[in-house]
Design goal:
Number of domains: 1
Number of helices: 3
Strand content: over 45%
Distance between the termini: 69 Å
Order of helices and strands: HHHEEEEEEEEEEE
Strand order of the largest sheet: 1-2-3-4-5-6-7-8-9-10-11
Number of strands: 11
Shape: elongated
Low-confidence stretches: 2-30
Mean pLDDT: 89
Largest sheet: 11 strands, antiparallel
Length: 247
């Protein structure tokens, strides 16, 4: 009798372990957002069309030029509101931006850098993905001294919101993107991106599929493109359109 009870206990434990494995298998679904789809979202967060790092960089350097040309006083602060909308056959976007600027001078009371804080909200749609999002950026623009040949930007850009893949229509959910910009250099006076780098983290959730997370690097090439590396895969990104191609 004791032997029968022992085997019954073993069978019950085996059944419990089997159920637990099945439960874990149903929860830990992998590949819910592909490497390419993560790259699409980061590329959009870099592009000028979709209010990404390239677009914000253009805005803040325009303001830097303006504030130095009108001889704004050291320590002065100004605000600026911008709305951008476009509805085309290939892509569309709609964004509202609120900038706050503070001009800082050096020990000789000459303009030295411009601190920019941005809050924005809006949406975009491309051939591969659509998103509604909001976010912030905190950029410091150096190189305001007239003898400086370039503007140099350091800071952080963030974007949170929802997304829907047009490549895999079952993939939709929430995402958060955080880009840390290092020595992003724009030439004077044309304000063209010449060089710089960044690191990023993208994470999010797809309902019923689970969480995803990727990180990587960005290198700005100086020819209107950037190298985007996501989880070891290299893409070339058009900084105007946000389109990417695998290298």
């Amino acid at each position: 009798m004791k032997t029968v009870k022992f085997y019954l206990v073993i069978l019950l434990l085996a059944a419990a372990v089997s159920c637990k494995k099945n439960d874990n298998a149903s929860v830990n679904v992998k590949g819910n957002v592909s490497n390419d789809e993560a790259a699409d979202m980061v590329a959009a967060s870099m592009s000028s069309n979709f209010n990404g790092v390239a677009g914000v960089s253009s805005d803040v350097t325009i303001s830097a030029q303006t504030f130095t040309s009108i001889h704004l006083a050291c320590g002065a602060s100004k605000s600026d509101s911008v709305s951008r909308h476009f509805n085309g056959s290939q892509f569309s976007y709609s964004y509202s931006l609120k900038y706050n600027y503070t001009l800082n001078c050096n020990s000789d009371n000459q303009p030295d850098n411009l601190v920019s804080n941005l809050a924005y909200s809006g949406s975009y749609s491309s051939s591969r993905i659509s998103s509604s999002n909001s976010g912030t950026s905190a950029f410091t623009v150096g190189g305001l001294n007239p003898t400086a040949t370039n503007y140099v930007i350091n800071g952080e850009y963030k974007r949170d919101g929802s997304f829907k893949s047009k490549v895999d229509t079952t993939n939709s959910g929430s995402s958060a993107i955080d880009i840390t910009v290092k020595s992003l250099t724009l030439t004077k006076p044309a304000r063209k991106i010449a060089s710089g780098s960044a690191t990023f983290i993208i994470s999010g959730t797809v309902p019923k599929k689970g969480n995803f997370s990727y990180n990587g690097t960005i290198v700005f090439n100086g020819d209107g493109t950037a190298n985007l590396t996501v989880n070891g895969t290299l893409y070339i990104v058009n900084l105007e359109t946000g389109e990417k191609n695998k290298k």
